[in-house]
Amino acid sequence: MTTSAGDDPIATPVAPQAGVLNIANLLTVVRLVLVPFFVWLLFIEGTWWRVAALGMFVVASLTDRVDGELARRRNLITDFGKILDPIADKALVGSALVGLSLLGRLWWWVTIAILVRELGITLLRFVVIRYGVIAASRGGKLKTTLQVIAIGLYIMPGPFDPLRWIVMGAATVVTVVTGLDYLAKAWRLWKDGRASRAAERR
């Protein structure tokens, strides 16, 4: 497991990694398993079903915070977790955004902007992973927090539109900015990695 889905500085592990089968990675897998159940609840009409969907979303989101804390405190950080954690986050956030847009509660342009950034960065992780892993940053954590709060407000029944718009707007801006920052760091990682390999061949 890694810290929450985010984007920043380049991490080079020096200590031996924990085994893949650990509680932090298990919580990440649980988050993935909860996604289809959350989507099912989201599309059932009725106030209490919407509250149940919100509860499921909150529980799934909390596993991200808990598994990150466990991974750091118990030295359970693994490359498997570093890859699976952002995938689980994107699955949860992406399904929530698409579901809300399909239900007519969220503008499609917001969903598309966030998903393009999230999916693009996830694919980029696989491209540069041979050169290293880009770990979480404060900007990435802020992005995740804002996204979770904004989505929660949109799922929650009630007249919270002004607050929803403000938080979702902030989440969208931070998502795009941290994405650009990630691209810059990934480019440096790729460039340094190629230069290092070229030097080894000499």
From TrEMBL:
Return the broad EC class: transferase
- Give the EC number: 2.7.8.5
Broad class of the protein's primary localization: membrane
State if Nucleotide-binding is listed as a keyword: no
Which compartments does it reside in? Answer: Membrane
The superkingdom of the source organism is Bacteria
Where exactly are the transmembrane stretches of this chain?
A: 20-43, 106-128, 140-157, 163-184
Q: Which InterPro entries does this chain map to?
A: CDP-alcohol_PTase-I, CDP-OH_P_trans, CDP-OH_PTrfase_TM_dom, CDP_ALCOHOL_P_TRANSF_CS, Phosphatidylglycerol_P_synth
For this UniProt record, the keywords arranged alphabetically read as follows: Lipid biosynthesis, Lipid metabolism, Membrane, Phospholipid biosynthesis, Phospholipid metabolism, Transferase, Transmembrane, Transmembrane helix
In the bilayer, the protein is annotated as: Multi-pass membrane protein
State the family it belongs to: Belongs to the CDP-alcohol phosphatidyltransferase class-I family.
Name of the protein this chain belongs to: CDP-diacylglycerol--glycerol-3-phosphate 3-phosphatidyltransferase
Q: Which organism is it from?
A: Actinoallomurus liliacearum
Q: What is the lineage of its organism?
A: Bacteria, Bacillati, Actinomycetota, Actinomycetes, Streptosporangiales
